[in-house]
Design brief:
about 130 residues; mainly beta; 10 strands; ten-stranded antiparallel β-sheet
Length: about 130
């Protein structure tokens, strides 16, 4: 988990509009989602709770969770999901379930960058973050 801790800045985003469409995000919200470059702040507190904050000029969200424990999440696009996050083969895997649908967000570190794959059925978006000093 340690390799994920820090402040990450979005530097590249591929196919995110198609992913947002696939999970049901409306046009206006997708327009904003395509232009904002959020910072992702990941930390772990003394009790083992992990915090992931996404901060941008458009919207900021935060989730606090323990590994392998399901929790209720309200996403940036206002979906109410049952979410569980696990660590699998060095990847932080976030599964969100709502209205009979499931999407998966896989985050891993490659060459010092955080690579986030957003997966909904056969649609995959890849978002790349660089660590800020």
């Amino acid at each position: 988990m340690e390799q994920f801790v820090g402040n990450w800045k979005l530097t590249n985003s591929e196919n995110f509009d198609e992913y947002m469409k696939a999970i049901g995000v409306g046009f206006a919200t997708r327009q904003m989602g395509n232009v904002v470059k959020p910072n992702l702040l990941i930390s772990v507190d003394a009790d083992g709770f992990i915090s992931m904050k996404s901060q941008s000029t458009f919207k900021s969200t935060e989730i606090k969770f323990k590994m392998n424990e399901e929790f209720d999440e309200t996403t940036a696009d206002d979906r109410k999901t049952k979410t569980v996050i696990t660590l699998e083969n060095g990847k932080l895997v976030q599964k969100q379930t709502w209205d009979g649908k499931t999407t998966t967000l896989e985050r891993e570190i490659q060459d010092g960058k955080l690579i986030a794959k957003c997966i909904m059925d056969d649609v995959v978006a890849v978002r790349t973050y660089s660590k800020e000093a």
